[in-house]
Amino acid sequence: MQNEYAWPKRCRLLSAISSIAVCLVVAACTKPQPPANTDQKTGVTSVGVVKATPVATSIIKGESAEAVVRLKITDGYHVNANPPSLAYLIPTQLDLKPAAGISVDFITYPDGLKKKFSFAPEQPLSVYEGETDLKVRLTAAKTAQPGEHNLSAKLRVQACDDQVCYPPGTMDLTLPVTIK
Question: Model-level pTM?
Answer without folding.
Answer: 0.76
